[in-house]
Amino acid sequence: MANNAAKQNTVRSSRIFGDYLIMIAAPCLVAVWYYGAQFVSVAATGVLTALICDFAAKAILGKTFHLRDFSNIFIGLAIAVMLPAGIPLYVPAAAAAFAVLAVKIPFGGALHAPFVPAAAGFAFISVCFKELIFDYNVASETKLFGAQSLGSMLSKGQSVYISAANVFDIIAGNVAGPMGTGCGILMLACCVYLFVRRKTALLATLGFVAACAVCAIVSPRINASAFTSVVLELSAGSLMFAGVFLLTDYATLPHNGINRVIYGAVCGVICMGMRKMGVFEEPVCFAILLANGFRPVLDSAFKALSSVSFKRKEAAEK
Amino acid sequence: MKIISDLLMTALYTVFIQNLVLSSGLGMSEAIRVSTKPGTFGKFAVMISGFSVVTSVLCSLIDKISFMSDVTYAVRAAVYGGILAAVFIITAVVARFVFKASPKFLGTLGIAALNTLVLAVPYINHSAAYSFADSIGSGIGAGIAFVLAAALISRGSAILAENESIPEVFKGTPAMFLYVAMLSLAFTGFSDVNLFA
Amino acid sequence: MSNTNISFKDMLVKGALIFNPVLIQLVGLCPVVAASTTLAGSVALSVALFVELTATCVIASALFKKVPRWVRVPLYLIIGLALICPILWYIETKTLINISLGMKIYIPLIAINSVTAVHCEQFAVKNSVRHAFYDAAAVSIGASAVMLIVGATREIFGSGSLAGVKLELPVIFKGMAMPFGCLILLGFMAAGLKAFLNYRYLGEDEAEPDDIQEAEKILDSGVEEVEIFDEFWSEQTEEEQPEPEEKAQPETKEEIRDSANEDIEDFFRSIGIDYYEKGDEQ
Q1: Is residue C264 one of the residues assigned to a domain?
Q2: Residues B184, B185, B191, B197, Cα dihedral to 10°
Q3: Does residue C147 form part of some domain?
Q4: Which of C180, C183, C198, C276 to mutate to test the interface with A (most CBs of A within 10 A)?
Q5: Which residues, at least 6 apart from A286, have a Cβ–Cβ distance to it below 8 Å?
Q6: What is the pLDDT of chain C when averaged over all its residues?
Q7: In this structure, is residue B135 part of a structural domain?
């Protein structure tokens, strides 16, 4: 019985994370295109560390290690694409180890963890190595604004004139920033794939992006038009990547459609709040962790509301 | 108007930017214990806010006396602790003998009043040089921060209890610690500075 | 609670290990999480906790048995402050010891620690002075051990030093000095303790009959304490306690063994360890 459950979990895990691996191949290719061997070494370190930590932890706990559990590869790659070029290799290793040992294993695997492991891993290294994580000086000579990332420009209140000439560079990710998350066009393509595979998962992304856009309009960080503010905020850092890849995580997504939109919107508001008042240039992973914490509260609130409306309906029918 | 905006800003700061329970560990034991009784959250929010506000306002007033400006932290601790104990005893006496409160209510009152969270608020007001309105805001914020933390932990512990995939050694307290750790890590996105560092 | 035969060793195992205040009972988390960032700080907090807890428990046991609970609880705070503040004042004004701002605030906060309230209220006021002292000392040792381990680990990995001596570490994890770093450490320490308790008292092959007997003896009073501990937090009072149901006394040897096993099982389930009988897994 227990073996069957474990087998089912492995199958489900390989299917879900298999989809994510297909999706993440695109940002990885972009990162290889822009940064070449630098990205390959960071990604390999992240993936290998995640695999070794998972294998070791399962050996200690007396559990079977499954190669078909693709979540380790996904964790390693997701962390790698969010990092800047030239990052020391111990940083992705620390992030992957944290994600696996402090989140994935203790909570019973990537399909059961109440927090997104990759987001936790990235948040951990953001706290530990803040200066390294948001330093985009390496390989940025050919970028649109040199070593200045959109995130740092926004946090300093520096506006950017968006013209037909530079808007493509911005949405194509040709600005200083994380190695593989800047390309908005690819994120859109990933959304299409996710829509085909898990339609309702994108509801959370929809709520997230809408909330971020509304916050960018209502409370802009720069003195510019609403359109400019929205484009820059959505293109900065790993916001879109996290919205598509991490927020739609199978284990942490609410079951109900409306709840998914609300969950995404809550995450978006928290993220924009952290960008405005927090201490990190890109706090989206912290926002996802906090939204993960709010998810059970939202679920129970939704359940309570549903039962109240059901009772009212029943009383009206009587 | 400025007083109200200061009060609200300080309350928001205490709840989110420097959540006193999850970012600073104050009153964490009580929050974890209270989280098992979601029905009492409202009561605790009011009580903790009430005690925090009264204690921090009284401590702010005492701080204005010239004698307090250059006292050691030991004397300050004695004064703040004495004020909190006095506030609790007066409240309990009134509740017991005027309103005929039950021992059960007095027990809840004790947990809400006598914890590290409530006693830390005057120190925060002092170290941040808060104004009178700010002191009230931080007191209210302390109560809301406590209930926010308790609510997040409460629902979290419920989903941990339902999760049968958790390895045996991590079931129960270890998983709870790690869950609270992740919430604490999430709040670090607002502020990565330790309180009183 | 009849505990006249319990030795200090038994109470030490029970108070510091089986019912570790921080890792099992989840009390006294504030000083551990917020202030134990260095080994020196942890030593200071441990000493303060030991002095405050033992003295308060002894005084509570000797003097407060007839005092109503709602008066007792603030008295613990006043006693704690009366003990800690003069020592802190002496250190601040009469010595050259440099205490950080955090320590100046967190050491007095020990006086309002939940460990004190829980152990004074649930053990000291119901037992003799000697046993109250034993319990307080055992609990302080348990909490101090956790604080010292946590403080040393956080200082090594969070600041790259130990007891102020710089270590040549290639990487420093600043996050370990943050509260979440401590909570993660506590999570793994709690898991380790749980695995140890499983191995020591409920292991399949390794546990000897003596061990089971020892566990039974210690847990006998332990189960009772867990129940009253929960009762403290569930806000029930002496006046509202339902009359305990008369339990049928076990008569045969098998019944006595079954009854003891049930107690152990209940206790371990209450702290999250799944109890299993030998052969259950086959």
Answers
A1: no
A2: 70
A3: yes
A4: C180
A5: A123, A126, A274, A278, A280, B185, B186, B187, B188, B189, B190
A6: 77
A7: yes
Cβ contacts of B182 within 8 Å, gap of 6 or more: A103, A114, A115, A120, A289, A292, A293, C180
> Who among C170, C173, C191 is closest to A128 (CB)?
C173
Round to whole Å and give the CA distance between C270 and C261: 14
* Residue among A212, A253, A215 nearest A234 (CA): A212
Whether residue C254 is contained in a domain is answered as no
Asked if residue A142 has pLDDT above 80, the reply is no
φ, ψ (nearest 5 deg) of residue A144: -60, -50
Distance, CA of A226 to CA of A219 (rounded, Å):
10
C226 inside domain: no
Give the three-state DSSP class for A45.
Answer: helix
Q: What is the span of the domain harbouring residue C138?
A: 8-200
Contact A118, A246 (CB under 8 A): yes
Smallest Cβ–Cβ distance between C178 and the set A94, A102, A127 belongs to A127
Residue B197 belongs to a domain:
no
pLDDT exceeds 50 at position C260:
no
pLDDT for res C5: 67
For residues B138 and B121, the answer to whether their CB atoms sit within 8 Å is: yes
Query: Any CB–CB contact under 8 A between C88 and chain B?
Result: yes
Whether residue B141 lies inside any domain: the answer is yes
Nearest CA of chain B to the CA of C198: how many Å?
9
- Report CB contact under 8 Å: B152, A294: yes
Torsion region of A127: left, alpha or beta (phi above 0 gives left; psi -120 to 50 gives alpha): alpha
Residues 6+ apart with CB under 8 A from C274: B168, B171, C268
Residue closest to B15 by CA, chosen among B149, B156, B136, B117 = B149
Q: Which residue has the tokens 């096993």?
A: C261
Complex confidence, ipTM: 0.92
Partner C contacted by A124 (CB < 8 A): yes
Which residue range is the domain that position B111 belongs to?
2-187
Number of domains chain B is built from: 1
Q: Which amino acid is at C67?
A: V
- Tell me if A124 and C175 make a contact (CB, 8 A cut-off): yes
CB of C197 within 8 Å of a chain B CB? The answer is no
For residue C208, the Cα-to-chain-centroid distance in whole angstroms is: 27
Report how many domains make up chain C: 1
B34 within a domain of the structure (yes/no): yes
B19 in contact with chain C, both atoms CB, cutoff 8 A: no
pTM over 0.90: no
B163–chain C Cβ distance below 8 A for any pair: no
One digit per residue, pLDDT tens: chain B, 197 residues?
788 888 888 888 888 888 889 988 899 988 888 888 877 888 888 888 899 999 988 998 898 888 887 888 899 999 999 999 999 999 999 999 999 888 888 888 888 888 899 999 999 888 888 888 888 899 899 989 998 999 999 989 889 988 989 998 998 889 999 999 999 999 999 988 877 76
Domains (range + CATH), chain A: 2-307 (1.10.3430)
Partners of B179 on chain A (C-beta within 8 Å) are: 114
Picking from B33, B153, B182 by the largest number of C CB atoms within 10 A of its own CB, the best residue to mutate is B33
Provide the chain B residues 126-145 that lie in CB contact (below 8 A) with chain C: 127
